[in-house]
């Protein structure tokens, strides 16, 4: 096969994957009413993808906030505007960094585990066994994880934001000597609940849907081999990261 | 012989009736016009060389896989054309034992067996417990109720899967390779269980297996599949006498016969680099 036709084959495969992913999304939507019966399973998944991701979110949120504090303090001091540190940190976190970085971390922490789990269930015939017991795996396995992603991601992003602001406060106020009152009053005066905070929340809910859609799709359709599961987890991280950042641009353009 | 036996069987009450089944998977013809009847209340074994599509046949019967042509009637329902909701209703009355047990690894043995009950019936917890323990007792694993699947041996996992398959007292029980990995004690118990279930509950069983000795102790009739068709059909005793080429080769375990032992390949000597010049 020539290089050109091979490349064309890759493109065709990628497009077919996008189409299959779209159909899979519709299948999830169809299974959502039935999955409400498995509310306990959804709660368990929220705990699994949400609470179990807290360590990485808390740690990374703190460090991102601290580094933001350092960098922005340095930049703002050039213009003599260090008083705006709280505002700038809060706006960058709420509007951009919180949702996006949380989504990227979530894809690495929870997305991969969802893919591997469902992929192994496929490889060991557990999904087929559910089908044979007249339990729809789309409703019992996939939809609860999808819902859990949509619920957990905004909550994780909020935790990330809170820890980020705490980190910036530690660096800016405690370490670099910025006035505590200035830090908070500037922030509260300039950050809007609807325009800034909730904008980020909608975004992260959308990211939660995208990342868990990709993770469940990759797991559900993985070839039942160890190599297949390995590739599927890799594809989850790659596709989630790309789509998160692309979607971020689109959403930002519309929500501005 | 095949069509004649199918017609005579059609007069009896068949729980599963397959007509003109044709299946092509990945360019390979698996079934080329299979007619098969499974009488109600019988134990029917499906045997055949590896790769002839015995598991595929079971997947057709349960509607997991659609054939390219033909009809599959289970209790009067055409599973090929049945809407998904009705197919699920039908599956609630079918127990299926997977080749690799397919236990849910997140759950304990008890919860695995209780899973079909909890999903479809709202029963008091005490009743669920009693039903599950009764079924586990039947397979000798009541004491293992709190173990998780990763702590079980292959044979134990198969017996748990069997308990799960019978937990709702199905009308049809399908066993895919039930005897693999069982020691002689467990094998005996499983054979007894299959017979007892058929006699006491009046259910119908289909089993795919290779062990003729085990099959002849439990099955009422055997269908031998090869080359995409039912090549022989009858009681295990009649078939093991080997009156046709197919039965003689299969039950005699001979390498030479209508079924090739070797996967199609080019000339052996040429493959090793001897003989014909390149």
General description of the model:
- The complex is a heterodimer of chains A (256) and B (278).
- Chain A is 87% helix and 0% strand.
- By secondary structure, chain A is mainly α.
- Chain A has one domain.
- The longest helix of chain A has 39 residues, at 85-123.
- In chain A, 43% of the residues are buried.
- Chain B has 278 residues and is α/β, with parallel strands linked by helices.
- Chain B has a domain at 1-41 and 52-93 and 213-253: P-loop containing nucleotide triphosphate hydrolases (Rossmann fold, 3-Layer(aba) Sandwich).
- Helix content of chain B is 39%, strand content 23%.
- In chain B, the strands form 2 sheets. Chain B has a 6-stranded mixed β-sheet with strand order 6-7-8-3-9-10, with helices on both faces. In chain B, strands 2-1-4-5 form a 4-stranded antiparallel β-sheet, with helices on both faces.
- Chain B is globular.
- The termini of chain B are far apart.
- The A-B interface holds A 120-121, 124-126, 128-136, 140 and B 62, 64, 88-89, 91-92, 94, 96, 98-100, 102-105, 115-116, 119-120, 164.
In short:
The complex is a heterodimer of chains A (256) and B (278). By secondary structure, chain A is mainly α.
């Amino acid at each position: 096969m020539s290089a050109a036709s091979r490349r064309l084959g890759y493109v065709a495969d990628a497009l077919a994957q996008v189409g299959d992913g779209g159909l899979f999304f519709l299948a999830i939507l169809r299974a959502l009413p039935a999955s409400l019966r498995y509310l306990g399973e959804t709660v368990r998944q929220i705990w699994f993808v949400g609470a179990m991701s807290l360590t990485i979110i808390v740690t990374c949120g703190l460090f991102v906030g601290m580094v933001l504090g350092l960098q922005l303090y340095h930049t703002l001091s050039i213009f003599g505007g260090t008083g705006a540190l709280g505002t700038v940190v809060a706006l960058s976190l709420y509007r951009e960094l919180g949702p996006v970085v949380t989504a990227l971390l979530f894809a690495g922490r929870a997305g991969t585990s969802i893919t591997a789990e469902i992929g192994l269930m496929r490889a060991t015939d557990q999904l087929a066994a559910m089908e044979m017991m007249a339990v729809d795996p789309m409703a019992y396995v996939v939809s609860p994880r999808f819902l859990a992603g949509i619920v957990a991601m905004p909550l994780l992003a909020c935790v990330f934001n809170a820890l980020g602001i705490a980190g910036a406060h530690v660096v800016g106020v405690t370490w670099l000597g910025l006035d505590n009152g200035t830090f908070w009053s500037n922030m509260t005066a300039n950050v809007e609940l609807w325009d800034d905070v909730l904008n980020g929340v909608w975004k992260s809910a959308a990211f939660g849907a995208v990342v868990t859609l990709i993770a469940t799709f990759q797991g559900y359709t993985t070839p039942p081999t160890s190599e297949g599961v390995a590739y599927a987890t890799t594809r989850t991280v790659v596709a989630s990261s790309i789509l998160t950042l692309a979607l971020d641009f689109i959403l930002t353009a519309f929500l501005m | 012989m095949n069509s004649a036996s199918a017609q005579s069987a059609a007069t009896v009450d068949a729980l599963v009736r397959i007509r003109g089944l044709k299946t092509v998977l990945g360019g390979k013809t698996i079934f080329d016009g299979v007619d098969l009847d499974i009488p109600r209340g019988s134990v029917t074994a499906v045997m055949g060389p590896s790769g002839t599509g015995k598991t595929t046949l079971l997947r057709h019967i349960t509607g997991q896989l659609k054939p390219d042509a033909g009809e599959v009637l289970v209790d009067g329902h055409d599973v090929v054309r049945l809407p998904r909701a009705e197919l699920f209703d039908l599956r609630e009355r079918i127990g299926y034992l997977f080749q690799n047990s397919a236990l849910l690894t997140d759950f304990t043995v008890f919860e695995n067996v209780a899973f079909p009950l909890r999903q479809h019936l709202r029963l008091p917890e005490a009743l669920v417990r009693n039903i599950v323990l009764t079924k586990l007792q039947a397979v000798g694993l009541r004491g293992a109720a709190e173990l998780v699947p990763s702590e079980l041996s292959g044979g134990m996992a198969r017996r748990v899967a069997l308990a799960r398959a019978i937990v709702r007292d199905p009308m049809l029980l399908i066993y895919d390779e039930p005897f693999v990995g069982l020691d002689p004690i467990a094998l005996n118990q499983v054979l007894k269980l299959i017979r007892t279930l058929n006699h006491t509950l009046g259910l119908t069983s289909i089993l795919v297996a290779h062990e003729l000795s085990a099959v002849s102790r439990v099955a009422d009739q055997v269908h031998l599949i090869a080359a995409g068709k039912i090549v022989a059909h009858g009681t295990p005793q009649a078939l093991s006498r080997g009156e046709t080429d197919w039965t003689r080769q299969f039950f005699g375990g001979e390498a030479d016969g209508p079924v090739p032992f070797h996967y199609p390949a080019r000339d052996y000597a040429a493959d090793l680099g001897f003989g014909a010049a390149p």
